[in-house]
Amino acid sequence: MKKLTYRNKYKIVVVLLTVGLLLFMLFPFFVMLSTMFKSGVEVYKKPPYWIPKEFQFNNFIKVWTEYNLLGYFKNSIIIGLGTTFLNTIIIIPAAYSIARFRFKGRSVALYSLLAMQMFSPVIIIISLFKIFVKLHLLDSLFGLVLANTVITLSFTTWLMFGYFSSIPTEIEDAARIDGCNRMGTLIRIMIPIAAPGLVTAMIYTFIQAWNDFLFPLSFINAQDKMPLTLGIYQFVGRWSTQWEMLNVAAFLALIPVLILFFLIEKQLVSGLAGGAVKG
Amino acid sequence: MKLLSAKRQNGETAIAYALLAPAALFIAIFMIYPIIYVVMMSLYKTNKLGILQNFIWFDNFIRLMKEKAFWEVTARSLLWTVLGVTLKTVFGMIIALCLNIEFSGRKIARMLFIIPWASSVPISAMLWKWVFDHEFGLLNHTLKALSITQNPPVWLGTPIWSFVSCMWVDIWIGIPFMALVFLAGMQSVPKELYESAEVDGVNSLGKFLYITLPSIKQVIFIATLLSSLWTFNDFNTIYILTRGGPAGATDILITAIYKNGFEWLHFSDSAVMAVVTFLILMALSVVYARVYFRGGDDTL
Prior knowledge:
By secondary structure, chain A is mainly α. Chain A has helices at residues 6-25, 27-35, 40-43, 59-65, 69-100, 106-116, 125-134, 141-165, 169-177, 182-193, 195-211, 214-219, 228-233, 243-273.
C-alpha cells in the first residue's frame, strides 16, 4: 500500500470535491431518471422517494402513443434538418467571400457578424410576428426554419470564415492555374479541406433549432406543428402535470442533442472564445 | 495592362458581393427591417393591434421612464446579470481548478460537468420546475433527508425564492462554459512557471494568485463578457419556471419585452424596452468585438 503523502492527500480532497460538485450539478438529471420510471400515482406521493416501487417501463411506450411525442419529434427533426440545410447554403458563399475577397464594407461585415451573435431574438419577436402574418408563416414549420436561420447565421458564418481563412491561398492558386474557376475551387478544394468546420457549423445549427423554444411559443398554435420543446411544455398543465411523462419525453429529447453536442464541444469553445483559447 | 487589372478587380468585387448577397438579403429582411420596425414602433402611438397610429417622438420613452415598474425591471436585469456572471465565474473557476489536477476519471468528470450546458435550456428549465416542486419535488425531500433544513422554502412561490430559483438555474446552465474555458486557459500555462515557483517555495494559493490568474486574465475577461450577454438574454429559464411571476418578481427586460408584446398587447412599452435592450447589447458587443480582435488576430 502506498503511503499517503501530502500530494496524495491533496488529490483525494480534489477527487472528493469533484464528486460532490458532480452530484450537485447533475441533480435534476438524477431526479429525471427517478421520475421517468414512476407511475402517475407515485409521482404525487407524499413524501416523495427516489427509487420507484415498480419500474414503469411502459411509460416509454405510452409517451409515444398517447402523448403524440412522435409528432413532436418529427417536427423537431424537420425544423432541425431544414434549418441546417438553409443555413449551410447561405453561409458557405458568405464565409468564402469574406475570407478570400477584399472589398469595401468587409470589416463592417465582420464586425456585424460578431455583434449579431450577441443579439436576442426577443427584441425583434413582435416585428417578426408581423412579417410572418403577412407572409402566412404562422403555424408553419418553414417559418420556424427561417426564424432559426436568422439566429444561427452569424455564428456559423463566423466559424466558417475562420476555417476558410486558415487555408493557404497557394492551394487555391495552384488549382486555378490548372484551370479551375472560383466555383470549382470552392467546391472541390475549399469545402473538403474545411469539412470539419462545416460539420461543426451544421451540428451547431441543428442543436440550436432543436432547442429553440421562443419561436414556436410565439408562432405556433396548432398541436400538429409543435416541436419537442413546445410540445413537452404542453405537458405542464394549469392544475396538474403528468411529470412522469414529461420526464420520459425530456430524456428522449435530450439524447440526440447531448450526443451531437459532445461531437462539437471543443470546436465550439474555441470558436466562441476566439484567440484567447487555443488548444 | 493597368486597365485590365482594374477591370479584373471590379469583376472580383462583383463576385464577392454576389456571394455575400443571400446572407445579406436574409439579414436585411429578417433582422435589420424588424429592428427598424421596433424602433419606429417605440416612436409611435400604437393601438391594441399594434398598428402604428401617429408619430409622437420620445413620448413613449418619457412615459415609461416615469414608471417605477420600468426601473425595477431594468435594475433587476442588471442585478440578474451581475449576480449570475459572478457566481458562474466562481463555480466555473472551482471546477476548472479541480479538473486541472490529474486523477483517474478526470476525462469522464469533465464530460459529466458539460451536461448542463449541452442539454436543451427549455427542457432543463422544465426539469428544474419539477425538482423545485415544494410538495412532491425531490429537492426538498433530499434537503429534509440530509437534515439540512426541516422547513425548506416554497421555491417558486415567494418573490425572493422565485428569483433565487431562476437565478440558480441560469447559473447552473452557465457554469460549464466558464469551467471549460478556464480549464483550456489553465492548460496552456507553461508548466515551467509552476516548477520554478515550487523551487522558490511558493504555496498553492500563491501559485494560483501569481501565476494562474494573471496568465488566464484575457480568457477570464472574454468568458465573463460572453456570459454576461447570455445571462442578460436568458428568456427560457425565467419564462418556463415562473413566467416572470409571482407579481413580476422575476421579470427582467427580456421577459418583460415578450410579455408586454405578446400577452398584454402593450406594444409601445414592449418596443421601448426592446430598444433599450438593443442599445445595451450593442454596447456590450462592441466591447466583445474589440477584445476578440485584440487577441492578435490580423484578419481585419
